[in-house]
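Sample pair:
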Amino acid sequence: MPDAPTDNGTKQSRVGAPTDPYRNYHFLLTIQDVSEARFTECVGLGMRIQPIRYRESGAGQIVRALPGPVDYAEVTLRYGLTNSTELWNWMNAAATGRPLRRHVSIVLLESDGAREAMRWNLINAWPCQWRGAVLDAMGRDVAIEELSLAFDSLDRG
């Protein structure tokens, strides 16, 4: 039975209908003003709202919590080392005290690998850590670099 459309045009699964989870290997990243970047892994996407705990007067045994500051985890991107210098230049700008803030989108694709299932937008992201590739004279693996991004806010589109 097909999914039932809702009032806002999105699809809603029927109650009890099994839904397959998305696959973690169908994704792409877009970085504003960066054209040459192919990523093999994206880890660390997350947020935490710090609870502020307090005791109410008159009810000393009860501790309540209010939402406090939001903390966004750094996202680490892993990619194969190439002769492109776009990501290095972005990191180097931050290292010299002039971080270039860019919008980054992490796009999860449907199982066919062509259609967008969902996206997370990292607003005003900038590189805060770079880790060079492991070099091993006895190895045969692809040289992988890492770039970690800090950002101001997260939007799910």
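Residues 86-95 form the longest helix (10 residues).
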